[in-house]
Amino acid sequence: MDQSTDQSNLQSSKTPSAQALFQLKKEILAEWEKNVREKVNAAAQLQRPVLTDTVPSFLDNLAESLSEEHPRTIATESTTIAEEHGSERARLSRYGPDQLITEYQLLRDVVLNKLQAVVSLTEGDRITIQKSFDQAVCDAMTAFFLVHSQIREKFVAGLGHDLRNPLGAAKMSAELILLSLNDEAYQGEIFEDLRKLAQRIVNNAKRADRMIQDMLDASVIQIGEKVPLKVGEWEILAIVKDVITDLNRKEQERIHLVGSPVWGHWDGEALRRSVENLLSNAMKYGDSETPVTIRVNALAGRMILSVHNLGAEIPAEEQEVLFQAFRRSQAAKASGKKGWGIGLALVRGVAEGHGGSIAVDSLRGRGTTFSIDIPVDARPFLDAPTTTS
User: Which of the listed CATH numbers 3.40.630.30, 3.40.640.10, 3.30.565.10, 1.10.1740.10 matches domain 232-381?
Assistant: First the structure.
């Protein structure tokens, strides 16, 4: 049966609510559009075809679900029109999720008010209408967030690519300067200063490149994928010391390193970036006048690396948020210190990718400790599921 036949049947439906909804559709749309433009800021400037998108089709389906002659039980059954509505809002408007929900609530209110003015709605009618709108909101929101995730993923990937090109050029140029200055002909205090400056450019270019990779990996985690790992044989204490070497002198003086060498099969670069993020976090949010302690040890076939700092504790209800990509705790936001909310999400992704975990322990007066706990040999666990996959 085609759509025109369905609509013809609705016009002469034996079910009063279905017939009334079909006849009042244009009136409902007009009042809903007026209400939405008044109460949803992002809707005020939308062109009419963009604002209404799949709403007329949703109302037709709602009328069908109210009709005794039609097999549809709720408006969203066997159709993707609600998902398409959420997708269009994500792609063609500046709606936030709250505004998407509000316009469905406004539409439901208009439908109920208009129908109740001309027919007596049965309990079954009301249940059908409510279920239809509940499911429509759920479907639209799912599509809305999916599209935004895809847009963000493409943006981050493109940004990372665009940033890496000039960084690579700067790093290569600085490395060429270093090679030139190593010649015996270039000796003396001036040339030594130039060598230090060139090395500083190289180090900062490498650091910026790692930050870009963190951002790309966090985006991968955000959409439920695993961080790609390249496993080889590494010694963790050497990795930690290498990270400390890149810190400035004041930061290095705060570090207290405890532990002995531990060899294992891991992705050394991924662990390096994880240690960098944990140290950066401790330096940024810990008490600046107290030491940051790094402990490394091995036990029962596992390697445990912990970073401890003194300072305000992290409330228990905010601890899980810390490991979610692009989210920050209220304490971090209140501190006024800038952050992307990707560092700890990356650390979790790396730890779980190695078949291990990352834990936080934070108590008033005792400070905060983040602990990476992974198998010494991660190779058997690289295909294991993670909390994001």
Answer: 3.30.565.10
